[in-house]
Amino acid sequence: MQGWRVEMEDAHTAVVSIPHNHLKDWSFFAVFDGHAGARVSAVCAEELLEEITQNEDFRGKPDLTDGTEIQPSIEDVFAGIKKGFLNLDEKMRAMPEVVSGEDKSGSTAVCSIVSPKHIFFANCGDSRAVLCRNGKCAFATTDHKPVNPRERERIQNAGGSVMIQRVNGSLAVSRALGDFEYKNVEGKGPCEQLVSPEPEIFVEERNPDDQFMVLACDGIWDVMSNDELCAFIEYKMKLTSSLEEVCNQVVDTCLIKGSRDNMSIVLIAFEGAPSISEEAVKKDKEIDEKIELKVKEILDREPQENHDFSYVLHAVAEELHDHFPPGGGFHSKKSVIENVYHKLRPNEDQDDDLA
């Protein structure tokens, strides 16, 4: 979703079956949050998977009995992901528009490779992946910010500084693909520059209790914590089987919460994912009914000058505080409050102030 930004600079990839014979039961998902343009994020979405799976570190070793490729080991995957990121970064450095200085864009990257036994995560920047298990956030990647001690040390060793929580007072992430104006320090390797393209890689064993995984850019994480997002998605998955609808609800709620960035989210459901629950559907309907009664009550008891939408919205939020969906709060029910209000006061102007 473009959100309030003038341009949409995010991109994503979702490949349920990687198109190589020995990887057909493996999947790849990624989100790329571009900045200063959309070129790098678009190239990453198109080419990162191939750069990872086709480099010599990742490719499975031939089976000596029949010559077919065997699946890569955990070590192979780690090495292949790192090489794929670094290879793609060098490849993009040679693009004509980069060489000419016309394009100065960059992109964060968060991706996941799902095999039958493991879930691999790779992160470069401040997009984030979380894994929900048994209703809780069981794993989350770490954001790469210039203020992090390890990141600050690398930046300073490369002759840079961290000012107002940014690299040289400008870039808000300390690792990214592209951003080549921050990668020209002589005598330093690609992972020692002011901005590093090196991903941080993690692996989790798959578990029958795994419910879902989320990859999202900082437009989501700016306004929702890991636990809030896991709780909200779990709640919504009990109301609908449509993952697209769940994602739309997340994005809408983040927009109402005040996110001003582009927003991208990829939601992957595992075997242990919640299914539609009649009890949950009934409870959600009861929340809507409580909202309708509360809006009527507020309009009946308050003087006319307190009938503007902003006042009613905040009153409902305060008085029904403990009844709203977990993780989403009253923001996730704003449209319900709004619909009831306009049904009762069809000629009233709406004030969207949520402060």
UniProtKB/TrEMBL annotation:
UniProt keyword RNA-binding, yes or no: no
Name by which UniProt lists this protein: Protein phosphatase 1B-like isoform X2
Bilayer topology annotation: Lipid-anchor
Cofactor (UniProt): Mg(2+); Mn(2+)
Source organism (scientific name): Biomphalaria pfeifferi (Bloodfluke planorb)
Family of this protein: Belongs to the PP2C family.
Domain PPM-type phosphatase residues, every copy: 1-270
Superkingdom of source: Eukaryota
